[in-house]
């Protein structure tokens, strides 16, 4: 769950698999940001993707499942349903801890003992003596990790009752935001919304740790406040893809939740619009079909089965379905009346149109991308905006 709040230095609430760790926040939202702007802070940098919401040429994919409902009027962001992968990591991580301490570590000690010339009998005897203690240590580590994961999961569930989604209305080309602690929504023009990717670096005992977050926000002059919403992503491109999913929806390039959350086409007609047990069987059928058509190598099925065996087969899928049922039983936050009426459909003749500036600059970005496909995203945006300002003088 991601929570919107007023911030002078935006914080980020991570996915449950990230253990709700915080990354160092960027500077306050620039009051006049632009796509392609780079802002550095002591431990990283912020790359602005909007305004204006220019095309990124990356897939419109919501890998983090931050998007909830999608229809022909609006997209809800920040209250998406859980994915199977989260439970696979929740269960697979502790399971791996048991195997690592109980089997891998003694096996590694055996190899080192043999390399040091202790002899087969002595190395084997000592390694076998390590296994019970290793299994016990791994079990305690697994129990501790699982307890933390489950605690974060149940805390995560309670957020669905509290958080009103950030709603993107493409018919009005506006964004409706209810900041944390507020009761009345704030309506923001779509083309004025800021979007960015935070890259934060820190040094731990294990080496350099780099974290990414995608955020949206705006400056609200009546309150003299910066409001923002952020969530963790696994990488820079994945963060941009999350933004691209929103941008593509608002510009009528994608139209359904399946388009942005099911890139592997693991939902068959008639399946529920979320992940669950059906996802496992559809994925297995897809794997077999790809192997039969020789789209993948001979060992691909072996690795597929090994991965799912180590993540406890279909148990994550059952738990995902349980979590979704639990969310439905808890209920969602009440949408304010003003937001509800704002979400009602408009007749087509009243639909808002993109500005001439956005249309012109979007085309310029596509043209520049064709000329220089290897150019990085921020440089492409900055070059297009600079050329447009120069032409306007």
Question: What layout of secondary structure does this protein have?
Answer:
Elements: E1 5-6, E2 38-41, E3 44-50, E4 67-70, E5 74-77, H1 84-115, H2 120-162, E6 166-169, E7 174-177, E8 186-189, E9 194-204, E10 207-220, E11 225-233, H3 236-250, H4 257-261, H5 277-292, H6 300-310, H7 315-330, H8 337-342, H9 356-371, H10 377-392
Helix pairs in contact: 1-2, 1-7, 2-7, 5-7, 9-10
Explain what the structure shows.
The protein has helices spanning 84-115, 120-162, 236-250, 257-261, 277-292, 300-310, 315-330, 337-342, 356-371, 377-392, and strands at 5-6, 38-41, 44-50, 67-70, 74-77, 166-169, 174-177, 186-189, 194-204, 207-220, 225-233. By secondary structure, the protein is an alpha+beta fold. The protein folds into 2 domains: 1-79 and 169-263 and 352-372, no CATH class; 82-162 and 271-335, no CATH class. The strands form 2 sheets. Strands 1-11-10-9-3-2 form a 6-stranded antiparallel β-sheet, with helices on one face. A 5-stranded antiparallel β-sheet has the order 4-5-6-7-8, covered by helices on one side.
Q: What are its keywords?
A:
393 residues; six-stranded antiparallel beta sheet; 10 helices; 45% helix; globular; disordered N terminus; 17% strand; 11 strands; alpha+beta; single chain
Number of helices: 10
Radius of gyration: 24 Å
Strand order of the largest sheet: 1-11-10-9-3-2
What is the SS-derived class?
alpha+beta
Q: What would you call the shape?
A: globular
| Largest β sheet strand count, sense and barrel closure | 6 strands, antiparallel
Number of strands: 11
Give the amount of beta strand, in percent: 15-25%
Q: Uncertain runs with pLDDT below 50, 5 residues or more?
A: 1-27
Give the % helix: 40-55%
What is the N-to-C succession of helices and strands?
EEEEEHHEEEEEEHHHHHHHH
Distance from first to last alpha carbon:
46 Å
How many domains? The number is 2
Average predicted confidence as pLDDT: 86
């Amino acid at each position: 769950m991601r929570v919107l709040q007023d911030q002078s230095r935006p914080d980020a609430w991570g996915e449950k698999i990230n253990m709700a760790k915080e990354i160092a926040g960027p500077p306050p939202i620039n009051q006049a940001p632009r796509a392609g702007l780079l802002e550095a802070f002591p431990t990283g940098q912020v790359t602005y993707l909007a305004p204006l919401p220019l095309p990124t040429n990356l897939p419109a994919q919501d890998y983090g499942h931050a998007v909830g409902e999608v229809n022909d009027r609006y997209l809800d962001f920040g209250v998406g349903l859980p994915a199977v992968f989260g439970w696979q990591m929740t269960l697979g991580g502790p399971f791996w801890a048991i195997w690592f301490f109980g089997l891998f570590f003694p096996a590694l000690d055996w190899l080192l003992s043999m390399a040091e010339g202790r002899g087969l009998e002595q190395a084997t005897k000592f390694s076998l003596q390590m296994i019970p203690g290793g299994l016990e240590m791994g079990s305690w580590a697994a129990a501790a990790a699982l307890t933390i994961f489950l605690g974060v999961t149940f805390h995560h569930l309670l957020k669905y009752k509290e958080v009103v989604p950030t709603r993107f209305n493409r018919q009005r080309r506006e964004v409706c935001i209810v900041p944390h602690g507020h009761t009345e929504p704030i309506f923001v023009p779509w083309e004025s919304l800021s979007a960015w990717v935070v890259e934060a670096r820190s040094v731990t005992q294990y080496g350099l740790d780099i974290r990414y977050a995608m955020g949206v926000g705006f400056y609200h002059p009546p309150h003299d406040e910066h409001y923002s919403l952020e969530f963790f992503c696994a990488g820079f491109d994945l963060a941009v893809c999350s933004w691209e999913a929103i941008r593509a929806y608002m510009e009528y390039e994608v139209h359904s939740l399946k388009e942005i959350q099911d890139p592997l086409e693991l939902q068959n007609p008639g399946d529920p619009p979320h992940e669950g047990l059906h996802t496992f069987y559809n994925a297995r059928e897809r794997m077999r079909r790809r192997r039969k058509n020789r789209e993948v190598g001979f060992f691909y099925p072996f690795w597929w089965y090994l991965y799912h065996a180590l993540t406890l087969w279909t148990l994550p899928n059952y738990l995902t379905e349980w979590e979704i049922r639990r969310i439905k039983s808890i209920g969602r936050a009440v949408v304010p009346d003003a937001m509800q009426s704002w979400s009602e459909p408009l007749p087509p003749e009243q639909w808002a149109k993109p500005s001439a500036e956005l249309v012109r600059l979007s085309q310029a970005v596509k043209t520049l991308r064709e000329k220089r496909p290897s150019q990085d995203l921020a440089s492409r945006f900055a070059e297009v905006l600079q050329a447009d300002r120069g032409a306007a003088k």
